[in-house]
Amino acid sequence: MDLGIKGKRALILASSKGLGHGIAVALAREGADVLLCGRSSDRLAANCAAINAEGNGKADWMTADLSDPAFVETMSKGVAEKFGGLDILVNNSGGPTPGTTEDMSAEKLETYFFSMVARIITLTNALLPGMKAQGWGRILTVASSGVIEPLANLALSNTLRPALAGWSKTLASEVAGLGITANMLLPGSIATDRLDDLDGAAAKRTGRSMEDIREEKQARIPAGRYGRVDEFAATAAFLCSQPASYITGAMVRCDGGAARSV
């Protein structure tokens, strides 16, 4: 299938590794020009070199940190300087520290609210006028399957990410008539460094081995395994595509059937 995004300009947040990096690769392979951002200049430079070596879409990068108060201004200027505008925005952020509801201090809530919610919303607002003017845009927000089924020992994530769900659905209704879609993509257990960290934390908390934790978790997934980054990224690329123009306001799961809700 031709996704119809050759030459489209895409910004992928938190794309130095993991899901963000996978999405950048998938979009570039479809011919999109991608702008990667994150905190590690070494990883970003290496990622872009690899993408450019494939010879499909072009890749560029810039360092930026979602916890920085100047993040939105930095990224808005970067998009204008490097691309002159934007067609595809992939909102992505790192996850918060594991813990229970009793571990949620006011300081933690405020810190992660800004990096996981507020700056994603305000960056989207800053880039949205350009999409409206050109009559085409894709806004994809990566969250977590905890939005629909709260995950044990991830109280901060379970609390903050649903705020993005309400925002994304509201936004989708506001811009649907302008050629712009807004969707959410909810990963389950996808094999990344983040999942390793969470499995490690669970092993430490329970006094069990990482192998036992992983075997138990995968046994609860109908697909019987963890997902691959390329599988997740392919789903993201489709939601950012031209053929997906009538899909908006949706929350799409990529979790191997793990969530039990309808």
Summarize the structure.
This protein is an alpha/beta fold and 262 residues long. The chain is 47% helix and 14% strand. InterPro entries: NAD(P)-bd_dom_sf (IPR036291), SDR (IPR050259), SDR_fam (IPR002347).
Quick tags:
single chain; 7-stranded parallel β-sheet; 14% strand; Rossmann fold; 8 helices; alpha/beta; 2 domains
- What is the H-and-E element order? EHEHEHEHEHEHHHE
For the record, the count of structural domains works out to 2
Strand content: 5-15%
What structural class do the secondary elements suggest? alpha/beta
Largest sheet: 7 strands, parallel
Count of beta strands: 7
* Rough outline: globular
- If you average the pLDDT, what whole number results? 96
- What would CATH call the homologous superfamily of the largest domain? NAD(P)-binding Rossmann-like Domain
Kindly provide the name of the CATH class of the largest domain: Alpha Beta
Protein name: 3-oxoacyl-ACP reductase
InterPro entries: NAD(P)-bd_dom_sf, SDR, SDR_fam
Pfam families: adh_short_C2
Family: Belongs to the short-chain dehydrogenases/reductases (SDR) family.
